[in-house]
Amino acid sequence: MISRSVGALMALAILAAACANSAAEAPTGSQVVAELADYKITVNVPSVKAGAIKIGVRNLGAMEHSFQVLKTDIPPDKLPVDGASAKAKEDGKVGEIASIPAGKSSAVTLDLAPGKYVFICNIASHYQLGMHAGFTVDPL
Ligand SMILES: [Cu+2]
């Protein structure tokens, strides 16, 4: 009987591990966590020190989103938009997660230099609908 309940516990543990990529939690070790909603980006901290930064991205929305990291001095809501594609121009892009399905999370680790950044979702028209957030990387 004892070994049977241990087996049941192990099955539970495996199940929990399999769910680690759901949007319920950001990937472990994320220094920055960005939450994507339909049509908003919320970041848990306004800034970090320069260096290799793991950014965890949770898609809490009901649709697919993307996550682009741009190094730019342009204010988050003032990026130029290409009319034909309905996407923001990605000048200064230092990294991205091209697709995060609804309800999933993902992470990207980037070597970030000091300066101003803008996080966006660049699926057509999502930027214009409000999916942008400013972020600052401070010198060490
Ligand atoms: Cu989006």
Supply the key terms.
single chain, 140 residues, mainly beta, Immunoglobulin-like, four-stranded mixed beta sheet, globular, binds copper (II) ion
Helix content: 10-25%
Computed Rg: 18 Å
Indicate the overall shape. Answer: globular
How many structural domains are formed by the residues? 1
CATH architecture: Sandwich
- Determine the strand fraction and express it as a percent band: 35-45%
Order of helices and strands: HEEEEEEEEEEE
Largest sheet: 5 strands, mixed
Bound molecules: copper (II) ion
The CATH superfamily is Cupredoxins -  blue copper proteins
Distance between the termini: 56 Å
CATH C-level class: Mainly Beta
Q: Would you report the number of β strands?
A: 11
Mean pLDDT: 89
CATH topology: Immunoglobulin-like
Could you give the topology of this structure?
Elements: H1 2-18, E1 32-37, E2 40-43, E3 47-49, E4 51-59, E5 65-71, E6 81-82, E7 87-88, E8 93-100, E9 105-112, E10 115-120, E11 132-138
Parallel strand pairs: 1-4, 3-11
Antiparallel strand pairs: 1-2, 4-9, 5-8, 5-10, 6-7, 10-11
Bound molecules: copper (II) ion.
Summarize the structure.
The protein is mainly β and 140 residues long.
